User: Which sequence fits this backbone?
């Protein structure tokens, strides 16, 4: 899994980078995605508040993109919540793709011949 991590307004330490890789591998490792991009940012800077943002962009094979964003006081909590939401969104998207492909195959199938069970009156 290719994960690109960028930060804005905070220092991206090696332990933070390892945490993001580990958390996303756990949450999204089952999916075959082309690319994951993660942006970590501190919106308000030193003023504090609920301002740590984690934005995850998942690029799927068919040109679809899922973007999840979460803002919390703690950066690790924001990463955890965004990873969980990304997992649920990816499951929903994969289910939609499966349902669509099954519907498409069923609509293209030849109609079955009718049986002679009709009432002959």
Assistant:
């Amino acid at each position: 899994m290719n994960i690109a991590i960028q930060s804005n307004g905070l220092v991206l330490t090696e332990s933070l980078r390892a945490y993001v890789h580990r958390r996303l591998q756990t949450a999204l490792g089952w999916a075959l995605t082309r690319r994951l991009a993660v942006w970590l940012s501190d919106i308000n800077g030193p003023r504090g508040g609920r301002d740590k943002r984690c934005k995850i962009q998942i690029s799927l094979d068919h040109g679809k993109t899922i973007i999840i964003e979460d803002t919390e006081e703690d950066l690790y909590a924001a990463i955890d919540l965004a990873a969980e939401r990304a997992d649920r969104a990816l499951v929903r998207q994969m289910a939609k793709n499966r349902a669509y492909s099954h519907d498409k195959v069923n609509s293209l199938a030849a109609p079955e011949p009718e049986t002679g069970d009709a009432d002959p009156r």
